[in-house]
Amino acid sequence: METIINNFLNEVASRNRNQPEFMQAVSEVVETVVPYIVSQKIYYGQNILLRMVEPERVISFRVAWIDETGEIRVNRGYRVEMNSAIGPYKGGLRFHPNVNLSVLKFLAFEQIFKNALTTLPMGAGKGGSDFDPKGKSDIDVMRFCQSFMTELARHIGPNRDIPAGDIGVGSREIGYMFGQYKRLRNEFTGVLTGKGLTWGGSLIRSEATGYGVVYFIENMLQHVGQTIEGKTVVVSGSGNVAQYAAEKAITMGGKVLTMSDSSGFIHDQDGINQEKLNYIMDLKNNQRGRIRQYIEQYPKASYHEGQTPWKIPCQIAIPCATQNELLEKDALHLIKNQCLAVGEGANMPSDHGAIHQFLNSKILFAPGKASNAGGVAVSGLEMAQNSLRFSWSREEVNERLKVIMNDIHQSCFVYGQEDQGINYVKGANIAGFVKVADAMLAQGVV
Ligand code: NDP
Ligand code: 2IT
Measuring from each residue's beta carbon to the nearest atom of ligand 1, which residues come in under 6 Å? Predict the structure, then answer.
């Protein structure tokens, strides 16, 4: 088995040189899916995984724009259209200086399995730019978004490819991009998700990823006779996913001790309650400030510059910032401190070593492609509402989100059974694979 896996990875690596994040995401899937393929007559010999790792289409383009001082700026834009076996390409756009093809291909690859797990008919894509919205004026962000969309518009559409937000792309950026798309096409369609509530957006979309990860953690805990109530929770990040993961954990009786940004983390031993979280939401979403400002408002808390929060003892850990933010040494701290459950809000936040430490310990570990699927799931519900020209209530969308997270947990349960309990990594990878592979087999070699 090891030889088959290594030969496969060598072949993929030789075609994707200098793409470490992409190879990391592929290896994690291959380790669990290849043994399954070998055991299943219908998949073996069809080179399905080899087809899945090759994007159907990769688009790369120049984004030239003039900033408010009159200087001409140039960024690079991308859209990776990864897989359309079960639906139109679907996935977010990331604006961050470290965006490159390796990062977007890892995200697009994970999106294949995640979108399949949601039970909704969505293929996979991801895109973005090395543009950094941090510290930019609204005018500069608008000009960049308009230039970016001027090229992207020709490649997307409500039945072809439906982008959404991700790191650095929130409601402001979606608004500017939607406005430009509508102007170019002279059509009001559901081409982007994460839209504002008065112009086609869905209730609960902003909350969905964070709420979903907490629903998933609750599912895992219930399975071993526990709940979130009364447990200590460490959250990283302070963006969209982190904010609503913290909010739901607080509502369900958890005590949230930390939040962070790329500069450091804050630790509040008394717990971040809803009032304190509202302060963080205003600081991040309106003032676009830094998490260190929390201790000016709440001086009993502490700020740890340049550090991640994984040494703080907790029962539940929810990484919600970015890839490879939780390393093997961090996993060892969590295990030593008797953490019970780790639910990934971010995409691939735990590195290879950390995942293996979690799997070898008794920790309940939910990989992002299962536990953060609530965001894209509600994007799918936004698409459905746009097609119906109707909007569902907050309760209706939230109920559907809960059912979807439950179903994902159940799929992991079915495919991830092992002697020692459920292996959620294996369960999520195989359940996602089976759905897409069956569609690819039915549609022939394309
Ligand atoms: P936001 O841009 O709203 O927030 C990102 C947060 O992560 C910020 O606190 C940011 O800090 C921090 N961060 C970003 N890059 C780094 C870095 N290199 N090192 C340390 N911290 C970093 O993004 P989201 O909350 O939307 O996304 C967070 C994660 O969740 C990503 O992995 C994303 O792919 C994933 N995700 C998002 C979904 C969504 O619906 N939005 C759905 C599913 C997954 P700073 O402000 O200092 O940069
Ligand atoms: O990683 C993700 O699933 C997202 N950023 C959300 C994608 C979407 O289309 O809502």
Answer: 165-168, 170, 209, 237-242, 261-263, 320-322, 325, 345-347, 372, 375
